Structure formats: structure tokens, C-alpha cells
Amino acid sequence: MSNNNKIPRLKGKDYSEEAARQRREFLESQTGASLSHTAHYSLPPESVSGNTENFIGVVQMPLGVAGPYQINGDHAQGEFYIPLATTEGTLVASYSRGMRVVSESGGVSVSVVEEFMQRAPLFEFATAREAIAFSQWLDARYDDIKKEAEKSSSVAKLQHIQKWVVANKLFTRFNYTTGDAAGQNMTGKATHMACQWILKTYDGAFTNFSLSGGIETDKKHSHMNLLHPRGKRVVAEAVIKRDILLDTMRADPVNMVKLRQRTILGSLLAGSAYNGPHSANGIASLFIATGQDEANVVESHTGLAFMELTDDGDLYYSVTLPSVICASYGGGTGLATQRECLEMLGCYGKGKAKKLAEIIAATVLAGDLSLAAAIVSDEWVSSHDQYGRNRP
């Protein structure tokens, strides 16, 4: 590679406007593209240290707000305005519509059931019996392992270790709570420290070791994370009054339930990770707005939607998201605009991650309700034609 083709770096000043400017000028000369819009931003370049490398500017994303939304959570309580970063016309309007109907029906109840973040080491032996013996040793020495793991962090707390013997291998999942951080790096460091102690202490002979055996399915969907949460398991539920649903969305609860019975079959046929209308839309828009790791939409969007008629003819709607990975502190949450969005929700800083998870699940429920009603009332296409007309 020619030195003339190398991306410019400024030693000791790489997170500076001068470094960003040099890189933009380099890229303009190399590609012929203009980066005039990319060059306009209000955040200090040094603030992105630890979030990106070779900084050249920002990508501006349209940010809308939905609400007001009445949320009756264990942690998120009150009326909220929800920031949604998206380029999809109709999305913010649809979520606002869902939030209005839920709020007028009394609001949405939300709870975080449990939360874990994992790293999944793999230990290999010559025989299956050796793998079984090691599994039993892990149980016997759990307290020591926990102590070693927690030396790396004041926040990460080892809760339990799941184990599966396959052939002559032991697949494990070290499950932690991680406070208000998403915790992937934190649990990786803690598990690495614990495993170094294990490898030195155990008397048996390992034939191979890997810090990840793949069973944590980091930034990948898996059935494992549907059953055993990676992140926060959150349940949102609401009873939607029949008259309000009919007046606002022109959808009858009976037809809503009929639709759900049929789309469940379609979801099974397709092998969908989520059987509701579109959990990823709300999650992705909120993740981008609030500085979450956008790749974690893959795990976070999976879940189960449930709908039934009440004895009064109203609509009970529930969304269970078993692996919502979100943070109110660390990562991208401290960046300028992302922090503002979190502060809009009252979710920036320590002690706010569960509140944010409840808001995310509540948002998914509102968006699902609105889209399902649009399908039932045959307004889905016309709504997109009205609000999503920005075509090239």
C-alpha cells in the first residue's frame, strides 16, 4: 500500500478538528465526493474518543418525537415523549397514534423480569467423562470463580454459570448483572480473568480453550436468547378500550384477534424471531436516538406478542421482549445528541437502564398496535402514500 493512500492520522491529536479536516480533504481527493454536510457538527471531536476511529464528522439522522405516552412501569412512570431517529416516513406518526390510543385507554404497564449479560467460554478435553468431571468441579468451586470474575469490575456481578456437555466439550454461559451498562466488554473482561484462574487451578488436562464458544450468540439472534435473556427480559401489556380503538383506528378488537391468529401461523411458517408486526422499527429508532449499540437490535427485537379479547370486549395486548440490551451510561450514551435524547426521557446516567428498557418495550407495543390496526382497517398502504412520499 502506498503511503499516499493511507488515511491521515495525527499522533497525539487524532481526535481534533484538524485531524478530521485532513481526513475529509484526503477522502475528497481520493473519491471525488463532497463531505461538506459531514463536516458540520456541534459536538467536540475529542468527545468521540472511545466511540469511533478515523473520525471525519457525523451522519445526520432525522429525529422525530412520538407521544405523549402514559407509561405505568416499575421504573418508567408518567407521561413521556419518545425520540425516534428514522428515515422511514409514517413511522413516527404511526407510533404516536398507537401511544395515543394506549394512553387514552389508561396507559401501558411494563416490568423488567430479569437481566443477564453473558460470555460463553468453551473448554475441551480428551473424553466426555473429563468434561463431565470438570462441569462438576465448576459447581464445587463456583464461589471462588465468582470472586475471581468480580475482581475486574465494581459493577459486573456473576450470577450463575450455565453448562452443556457436548461430546468431549463443555459449553458454558457465565451470566452477569452489569448495572446500567450493556456490559458486553465488561463481562468479557470478567470472564477472561475468571478463566485464567480456572486454567491455572484445575488439575485436569484441557485440550483446547476459547473465551467464546459461540453460545452467547453475541449480536446474533438465537432461540437461546428467547428462553434465557441476554440483556433485560421486559413485559409490556395494555388493555385497549374497544370504543377508543374503533373511533381512532377504525379497527374492531375481534378482527384484531383474528388477524393475530393468522399471522402467528405465518410467523411459524417463516420461522420469524418475533411474531408481532415490527418490533425492530421502534427499537432501532430508539437505539440510534439514545446512543445504544445498534447491532444489538438483532437480539433485542426477538420476542412474543400476545393478544386476546377481554370479557368486556376490549383488547388485551402484550409484548414480551426477552433480550433487550440497552444502557443509560457508557458507550455512546454520553455523546452530545444521544445524551440529550436520554435526558428527554429522564434516562441518562446511573440507575436508569431498567427505566429505559421499560420505555423501549412500551414503544414496541404502541407501534405494533398501530400497524396491526392499519392492516385490519386497510389503511396501511394509504398511510404510507400520505406520509412517506419523499421519493427520489
Automatic annotation (TrEMBL):
PROSITE patterns, sorted: HMG_COA_REDUCTASE_4
Family, similarity comment: Belongs to the HMG-CoA reductase family.
Enzyme class: oxidoreductase
InterPro entries for this protein: HMG_CoA_Rdtase, HMG_CoA_Rdtase_cat_sf, HMG_CoA_Rdtase_eu_arc, HMG_CoA_Rdtase_NAD(P)-bd_sf, HMG_CoA_Rdtase_sub-bd_dom_sf
Documented EC number(s): 1.1.1.34
Source superkingdom: Bacteria
Biased composition (Polar residues): 28-39
Protein name: hydroxymethylglutaryl-CoA reductase (NADPH)
Positions of the UniProt region annotated as Disordered: 1-46
Comp. bias regions, Basic and acidic residues: 11-27
BP terms from Gene Ontology: coenzyme A metabolic process; isoprenoid biosynthetic process
Keywords: NADP, Oxidoreductase
CDD domains per record: HMG-CoA_reductase_classI (cd00643)
UniProt GO MF annotations: hydroxymethylglutaryl-CoA reductase (NADPH) activity
Pfam families per UniProt: HMG-CoA_red
